[in-house]
Amino acid sequence: MDRLVFLLGTGLARGAVLALFALALVLIWRGARVVNFAQGAMAVVSTYVAFEVTSLTGSYWLGLLAALLAGGLLGFAVERGVMRFASPASPLSGVILAIGLVMVLQSALGIIFGPDYRPMRVPFDDRAIVVGGVPLLSPYDLFVLVVAVVVMGALAVLFRWTSLGLQMRAAAFAPEVSRLLGVRVSRTVTVGWVLSSVVGSLAALLLVPTSLGLNPHATDSLFVLGFTVAVVGGLDSPVGALVGGVVVGIAMSLVTGYLGAGLVPIAVLVLLVLVLLLRPAGLFAAAEARRA
Fold first, then answer.
1. Which family does it belong to (predicted)?
2. pTM above 0.85?
3. Do the strands 130-131 and 134-135 form a parallel or antiparallel pair, or are they unpaired?
4. What span, in angstroms and rounded, lies between the C-alpha atoms of 265 and 259?
């Protein structure tokens, strides 16, 4: 029972990070109908910015702020300088551009920083708190959970109760009608890219210190798992990203604890295949209205 409680806690913390990253993918899909395969590479660029700023200043918090600013600027640059040239008539156009961007960003990071893993420190202790002889979440896990909940809550408020959020939702679902109503669709798409890049950068910065460390490919597995979460929950559903992240995070933790880390990729693949077979649009995908 003690092991189960510990695995559930760590799975919840990891699931929160996966949910954040999946939410970044959902934001882009809802706003531009593009699966951003460059999300992981963009996030690792921001993480390198955080690493360098933290190394120079000694402050984790300044590094965190620098990473978020860099993520926002990178999202703006990618949307305006790359993705805006993708042909709307070809869904593969944006995918090909994103994959090319991955190669460029990871190659540039490899040239500048090299392929070695660099350890990143965290602002809190990463050892589990023991209560009544039962190991629970570590202070850093609690920090990750709080940050993830606050960010997802803020995004929910943005999309449901603010004018900008309503414009972004309208531009995503009915761009031509939105233009007729005075919504600047191109601007809202850019805002969506900026928000997505910031959220993805935050997810990477929270996860990388708990893994092998930072290198140009440090977020490859994060992208694969985040994309799985987004597909399981439904690419159109922020709620699906949240629930899917928790489900996948806990499943990974339980498989690691009871069956071994080597079986985690197989377990995630089985979960993805089952969802695609039973509900291809995702568990929380909205039902499509009938058309005459």
1. Belongs to the binding-protein-dependent transport system permease family. LivHM subfamily.
2. yes
3. antiparallel
4. 12
Contacting residues for 15 by C-beta, under 8 A, at least 6 apart:
245, 246, 247, 248, 249, 250
Q: Element (H or E) spanning 112, and its range? A: helix 91-113
**CA 173 – CA 32 distance, rounded (Å):** 10
Q: Which amino acid is at 286?
A: A
Q: Looking only at Cα atoms, what is the longest distance across the chain?
A: 63
- The rounded distance, in Å, linking the Cα atoms of 212 and 218 is 8
Cα–Cα distance for residue pair 135/4, rounded to 1 Å? 10
CA pair distance 102, 53, nearest whole angstrom:
23
